[in-house]
Amino acid sequence: MKIATWNVNSIRTRLEQVIDWLSQNPVDVLCLQETKVVDADFPRSPFEKLGYKLDFSGQKAYNGVAFISRKSLLDVSTGFTSIVPNLQPEWDEQKRVITGIIDNVRIVNLYVPNGAAVGSEKYEYKLRWLTVLREYLQLLLKSQSAICVCGDFNIALEAKDIHDKVKADNHIMASEPERQALRDILTLGFADAFRKFTQEGGNYSWWDYRAASFQRNLGWRIDHHYLTPVLYESAKSCIIDVAPRKLPQPSDHTPVIVEF
Q1: Which pTM was predicted?
Q2: Residue-range domains of the chain with CATH
Q3: Is residue 158 scored above 90 in pLDDT?
């Protein structure tokens, strides 16, 4: 099984690139983030012509998550409130969470809030959101041992996940409270698939559009696959495919693929 995660920064803008990538990389499940489209307008037919099934949760101009899968996923649900009891519905106004099961593997596809700037209201929301995410995953673990949590986490967990020329001290996506919130989630029993195979720095999944960051490789590794032990042990590879970032008008992110 191959599962890919990719923040496409608008599925309609990047549709041709995603279709071309899938044609060359026929993964079992492609997890998309920042689709930026309401469900009624999601471009279904190009994927269905390739034989893929779709599940999505979107909103206009912002956020949005989707599964593009070779087989129909089971037990698909969106948002936190479908799993976490007594949670206020406001937590699901932003479309950031979708989950489903394929071949007894539960996939959780996330678009974690960016947080804007350390100390801002959006930053505080991000930290609270990560606390809710931990509770959500803790509940899923009660009924499922094989879980892949993937997506755009908007957090670089270690210094080596950021180019050393980037001024990241107390920067959004690299502040200690964000990193600690993610560590708290990982203590539930999740491990970083990419780090099973690659310990070196210099591997990134996101580059700012500004200041020729991609050309200078001033990147961040903020797109992750986190696996429970049974999946971590069976993982055969985890790679970052930089090729789509080289295309004209690309997403600022690039796909990350794990294989079991």
Answers
A1: 0.98
A2: 2-259 (3.60.10.10)
A3: yes
